[in-house]
Structures are given as structure tokens and as C-alpha cells.
Amino acid sequence: MPEPLLRPGAELLTPRxxxxxxxxxxxxxxxxxxGRRDPLVVASASGVRLRLAEPAHGTSExxxxxxxxxxxxxxxxxxxxxxxxxxQLDRMSHVxxxxxxxxxxxxLAARLVEITPEGLEHVFLADSGxxxxxxxxxxxxxxxxSSGRPEKRRLLTxxxxxxxxxxxxxxxxxxDGGMHSLWSGVLPEQVFADxxxxxxxxxxDPVYEAxxxxxxxxHAHEVAAVIVEPVVQNAGxxxxxxxxxxxxxxxxxxxxxxxxxxxxxxxxxxxxxALFAAxxxxxxxxxxxxxxxxxxxxxxxxxxxxxxxVADGISRGEVPVLAHGPTFMGNPLAAAVxxxxxxxxxxxxxQAEVKRIETGLRNGLAEAAGVPGVRDVxxxxxxxxxxxxxxxxxxxxxAATEAAVREGVWLRxxxxxxxxxxxxxxxxxxxxxxxxxxxxxxxxxxxxxx
Length: 450
Fold this sequence. Notes:
2 domains, alpha/beta, Aspartate Aminotransferase, domain 2, globular, four-stranded mixed β-sheet, 13 helices, Aspartate Aminotransferase, domain 1
């Protein structure tokens, strides 16, 4: 039997030993097993900086341009969030949510109802963003089954979307260009509209509006819900679209008795310049999914909020309960940190901070438009995107990442994108550094595209 690595009094593992064990045992996201490239070992993090256990490409500290996959809204090691976690640890770290309740979860649910679009009154706390989408879909399917219309069990979405890696969310990710095309023919077959025309500030296209209208009308008898990422399609391609299409979807769903779900796991909590992307359209969905930045990146937690119509409809059914109950649902530690994170965000002029970051990204990324191989540069809120003219292969992604690291910045390019979603606490100097790194990554990707 191997000697335990975490026994009391054991010495800290060296970076080299960590990487050996990582290569043998740890399966990283979207990577082969065993790994073919060593990840960077992070020893600690504070503010917007990741401190490496060993220098990489001449630097031992990286500015995080990714907010840890868009979750670390306030950066790292924030004293307010640290204190919230410590205080809750002294009370209880976890208690089952079935038949019990506690202050952190109740306070969080009430706070989310207060700040989300009006009409969302009921909160189901889940483990992760993908699970919140599963819960949202289950709500919609059970609503129609409880209403005596079990034939309404398909979902309608548009191409270019991404909703998570668990089973049902995979079925509404882009069916061709998405990461889950491997499962075509196995996943439930959903109804797909064309991707929305690009441009947040663009006027809605009447031809596309007619396309949406025809599709909803034709499939309303079998569709339980329309599910989309409002305003920004994130991991499916970082595309921006007009809020006008959200208003149209709300009207169409109302007219044809279809529920509307907004997946705001990536866009919630100010990332697009509005507190929630739905606010750009002044639209309330029937179900809203939140995650990622909910706890400021400290702990995994998500939420699916719904209207009384949905909750009441389920409660009137043959099975009058939502048949879902994660073990760590409503985890007190995560809920306490989430409350602190929301209060921290709303207790400052977050709109001004996001606007400052938006201005810095527009100015700093403008020169990237002239880089050979760059197809488009776009910015919305605290999101900056450089799109290449072809997808990166493995060598191109590695070259782009290494170029950013040489500049002292952590980025995670994918597909044909080099992008950044920095923490809101990123100052102007570090923001300029991130922009230089994005340009360097785009330049390094030249000639290495698939």
C-alpha cells in the first residue's frame, strides 16, 4: 500500500512531485488522461494575482485574466469573504436541507429574489451551474406533466449556446460546433434555431425574428421551454446579440404557452454591465439559472429561480414536489459566502467599475484588430474578446497561453478565441497588462491555427 501523502506532519510536496502525482492521477477538464502538458502549479492567490510554486517562462506571478472561469468576481483572498467563511465555519459547515433550514440559505434566497428580475419568487439551491440547468429543465417538464400536457417535453434553443457538461444541458449546447457533438444521436433531440445575429447594439433583424416566430409556432405543441443565454453566448463562442431577441422570445412564449428559461450562470452579477443580462431587455423569464460568481469563486453553488406560476403548477400535480434534492443543497458555508459576495458587490459602485473595465478593454484591445489572423475584436461590460479567423489546434492554444504567461498574465484561449473576463477589482495598470497579453497571445497563435 502506498504511503499516505497527507498524513499528519507530512512534508509539503515539492512542485516536481506534485506534477508527477498530477500526471498519474488527476484528470483535468477538457484534457486527456494521462495529461500531455504539465499544468502550472499555483501556490497561493491574492487580489488578482496567482503565485506560482515555480517560475514559468520567466515569471512567478500571473495576473488572472479569467476570474477563474468567470467566478472570482472580487479576486482572491478577499478579507470580507474570508471572514464570512470563518464565521460560518465556527457555526456549522454543513447540515442536510431536507426537513431542516438555516439562516445563510434563507438570507441568500431572499436576497436573490430581491435583486433578480421582478416575478422570480422561489429559489432552488443547487450544486453547480450545470446542475441548476438540469433543475430548471426538470421544473419545466414537471410543470407541463402536472398540467396534463406530458407531450410538451422538448426544448428549443438557438445554435452557438453552451449550458454545461451534464446530460440535459449538453443536449441544448450547439449540436455541431459545440463540445458535445460526440453525443449526437444519444442525447435527447432538441429544436434548434439559427444563432442570433451578432451585435449587442444592432437593431433586431426582421428576417431572423420571423425565423424564431415560425419555429416557436411550429413546435409549441411539443416544446416545454425555450432556453437561451441572454445577451452573451459564452463558452459556445463569446458572441453578443441584441436584447431585442429576448423581448421577442418572451412575447412568443407567452403567446404559444411555452416557458422561458434564461441561463445567466456566466452573465449574472454585473458581468455584461447590467446586474443581470435580462435587465438589458427588461424581461423576466419563467426560470433563471445562476452560478459561477454567486459565491465570488470561493465555493461551488448555483440557483434556479422560478415564478409562482411554475411552482404552483408543479404543486398541483400528481407528484406535488420537485423531485430533486442534492446532498449539499443549501450548504451553509457556501450560502454564507454567497451572501457576503452579493452584499460586497452591491455595496459599491459596481456599475462604474464595470464601465471602467469596459473602457480599458476597448482601448487596450483595439490594436489587436490589426494582428494578422484576427477576425473580430468585441467588448461588452467586463468581457473582452479577440476572435481569430480559424480555430486553434493544440499547438496554437499552447503557444497562445505561453505568450500570455510571458507577459505575466493567465489566459485560457479556446476554439478561435483569445478572451478575458477579469475580476472587477482589476486596476487600470493590470488591465493594460491583460490587454497586452491578449494581443501577444493572438500574435503567437498566428500560423498555428488548425
